[in-house]
Each structure stands twice: as C-alpha cells, then as structure tokens.
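Q: Start with the shorter request: fold the first protein.
A: Done. Sequence, then structure:
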Amino acid sequence: MKKVYILIVLSLVLVSCNNSKNKKLSAFDTQMEANKHPGKKLMETNCYTCHSPSASQADRIGPPMIAIKKHYIDDNTTKEEFIADIQSWIKNPNAQDAKMHGAVKRFGVMPKQAFPEETIAKIADYMFDYDIDQPEWFEKHFNEEKGNHNGQGQGQGQGQGKGKGNGMHKQQAETNFEDLPYAERGLKYALSTKAVLGKNLMGTIQKKGTLEALAFCNEKAYPLTDSMSVVHNASIKRVSDKPRNQNNLANNKELTYINSFKNDIKNNIEPKPIVDLLDDKVQVYYPITTNTMCLQCHGKPNQDINRPTLNSLANLYPKDKAIGYSINQVRGIWNISFDK
C-alpha cells in the first residue's frame, strides 16, 4: 500500500511538471505566433509614426496602441465588434464618436487616412488576440486614469488578447535591425526616420500651425534625416516624381518604383518593400503616402491649402511641384541604402 501511495505522488508530481513545461512552451509558441501574424508588421508600418510604444509620455503625438486596445475592449467585447469599431473610426474619425475623449482633447482628432479594409482588419485581429507592446509608463498612467490604483487596471478583459501586454519589446530602438532580412531592415530604417520626422512635424502643426510646420520642413527635415542616416549607418533619402525641393527629384529607376507603388495603392494592394542587391550594397524602396494632415501643404490649392500657406510655399520653394494630392496617394518613396 505504501508503494502504491508513493507511485501516485510521483505521478502527480510528474504531471504537474509536464503541465508547467507545457504552459511555458505554450507562452513561447504564442509569442512566435504573434511575431508571424501579418497584423503585427502592418501595425508597426502604418500606426507607429503617431502611436509608437517607444515614445515618452510627454513627447508623443498620439496615444500608444495599447491604450486604444484597452479603451475599446472590455469583458463583453467580441473580436468582430472590435474590428468593426476600429474600421468605423478609421473611415470617419470625429470627436463625437470618439471613445478616447482624453486623447482627442490632448492630441486632436487623428487625420483621416485611407487604408484597405483588409489591412485594418488584420491589425485589429492582431491587437485583439495578442499582447502588444506598451511603454513603461503606461500601466501606471492607465490605472490612474481609471481611478484604480491597485495595479489591476480596468477593461483588460479575458484571455491573451485582452491582457495588459507582456512588454517583451517595449522599446522599438532595442531591436537589432542588422539581424533582420534586408527588406524588413530597410523598412525599419525608413519607418524610424518617418517617426522622427512625423513626430516633429505633426507636433509643430498641433502647437504652432501649418506655417511654422513649413519652416520646420525647410530648415530641419534634411538635418533630421541625415542624423538618422548616422544612427543606422545607412543612406536615407526621400525622392519624388513631383518634388518640392529639386534635390529630391527621382531618377529613372526610382520613377519606375514610384509608378509600381502607385499601381499597388490604386489596386488596393498593401505595398511591400522593393529590394535591389548591388555588388556590396543593398537598396530598399518603400512608398510615402498622403493622409489628411499632409493635404494642408500638399493638397489642392485654395481647397486644402489656404492662401497664406500657398504664399509661404512660393517663397520657400519657387519650383514646388508637390501639390494637388488627395488622401492615400504616393507622394514619393524612401530610398534606403546600406552595406550587405
């Protein structure tokens, strides 16, 4: 009888150990699945200029994506409802329908942007099902905002998709870009530069207006881009078929790629980086597309661009061709070059 008892105890211990191992394996597998989900890369590509998890609480131009997730999802929210809510907001962002009144009050209503419904659906699907990156300051801020100081938070919901996030990659800058495939590496260089330029540009628009933003672009855009080239040890350029500054005029190969990306956007296809392999260099190209905010300086004269802005553009850029755009059009491309 004693031997039987010992065997039972050992069996229970082994089962417990195996369950523990399975839980650890399950968590690892979940993280691998999250990394492979197409919505993760789409979110980083399309959302992180304004909603990056690496921006500080004071120095940001929009709420982090984890804040959006927690304000839209509660215990009773289904994935279908969440995707529909995000789709609805992207199609028509406005203060009346906002669920994040504090963010609207601080940052204003986000610019209207045209994304394929499939792109938004994949991003929302990823947000719902998986833990997403969050800034180090966010949990405390969220609990204080909800009036809940016990560290539990509210509206976190059930399961992985509604949790607080594992914080495994809180800082985007910690990623070792050199370990990435060429296309993704070039895209990261472009997006990190876009984030720096976008943060400064949109912050200037919000605080000082469009005319000051024009001055910023004229004086600071090149130095900031050059500084990111130094950071990434790469050549980072923006070129266009309709340049504002003639130094940014695209060459024949770049014009071919611009037209290719225009065709993708026209056909509602999510653009992917184009990679050229040279002798000892890699060149990566990715489109620059317009949103509502861009039209203040790149839209239609006297419709999107007001007279004072037009006058300032004429003074700063006498040969300006970068006007007449609508939402979600290709205004140019990134040309990223680095060593193999």
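Q: Next, the second protein, separately.
A: Sequence, then structure:
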Amino acid sequence: MYNSYLKKRAILKTQAEIELLRKANAIVMEVLLRLKEEVKPGVSAWEFEELALRLCEKKGVKPAFKGYRGYPYALCVSINEEIVHGMPKKEKVLKEGDLVSFDFGVIYEGYVGDAALTVGVGRVSEKAERLMKVTQEALYKGIEKAHFGNKIGDISFAIQSYVERHGFNVIKEFVGHGVGRSLHEPPEVPNWGRPGRGPKIEVGMVLAIEPMVSAGDPRVEILVDGWTAVTKDRSLAAHFEHSIAVTPKGPEILSKV
C-alpha cells in the first residue's frame, strides 16, 4: 500500500495557501483545547460532538470529517483501546482513569485543518501517563525531521524508534498524510520505516503527522460499526497529530494557537 502511494507526487502549497491552512489548523486546535477543558468523568462522547459542531458554526467553518467517505460525525472520540475513528455516541461515557483521544478537522475557505490529541480523564495510571507522554514526544521527534532534503522515512524512523525505545508499539495500519484542499493527499507518512527511504521532503509540503501508539499489541481490529479501530488485545492507545508546513527554515506547526 505504501509503496504504490510513493508514485503519487505531493501537492506543494504556495505561501498564500499555507496561510489559509494555518488559519484552518488554528481553529482546529482551538476546538480541541476547548474539548479538552470539558473532559471529566460522566461526560458522554456525544456532548463533545455537539460542542464541536457549535464551535464550527461560531467560527463559520465546516467540519471536515462529517460525510467524508461516509463517516457520520464531525468528531472522532476514541476511548482507551479505541485507536482512532471512535464514534461520539451518547452511550460512550467517560469514567475516571480513561484515556480519550479527539481527532478533528475543519474546512476553512476550501482548505483543511487536521489535528488530534489524547487526554486523561481525572487521575490515570502511571502507564497511561507515560503512553501519552511518549506518543506526544514521538510526534515532535517526527516533526523535527520534516526538513526539505530529508525523506519521509526519516520522519517515520524517528517516530518508531522513539516509541519502541520506551517500550511501546506504533500502529502500522494507519498513517499520516499530506493535507490541503483535500483531507488526505499524498504522500503517506507512516509511523514506522527506515531512514533515507520514501519521497523526498520538499518546501511547500503540508503534512499531517500523527503517531498512534499501543501500550501492548499493535495489531488492529475494526469493530462492527465499520469505523472504530481498536487494539487487538484491548490495550490502551494514544494518538497525537499536528499539521505542519515544510518551509525553507524548517518545519512549521500550523495546528497551534
């Protein structure tokens, strides 16, 4: 799958397009941080969906995920062993010690912002805290390698080696990607790989880099809803994502406020 994708060339962005993507991603991160404020025991996943929709309306943007490939919601809410694409249903209620991952995107003036984060609900276990910390740090290790002249495999290797050095495992079924007018553009950005391999990183690339990490078995199972991906052994998972632009001065994180 990855090898066939290598043949598709990245869509390089102009400075004007990067500015629009910066605005889109800033809105995404504003929403994610607002959702994070509401994380506490007793809150249902549906309440986060409603809040995300209200904030989209307030900002005058469209949710990027709703309707994409048939996904019915604006927000992905993944709890504990749910890795990604968890549906925000009323019956999913947070409890003390859970991990909850929010993955969210918006469309601003035709350009897509995309980011994700994982939050602990109340007091979580030491292992859960370490899983979140390592996953987020692995994201920044990957971003550090997003310099023009490097290869996509340099990003991938930085993420995988950091995660595995700390005793966790990267999920291989899902990858980062280019982002722009479409939610998913070439190139794919796997969270595993070998340095010096894959497409060359070029100025003007905008990449969504998103390590997903398991505390146990990295194999994936898709639930009967056709969307929710869980760890096969039901171990905890964490997910962090930033959209970044490759500039002559190095990588710039667009999804920040």
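Q: Describe the second briefly.
A: The helical segments are 2-5, 15-37, 45-59, 126-144, 152-165. Residues 1-6 have pLDDT under 50 and may be disordered.
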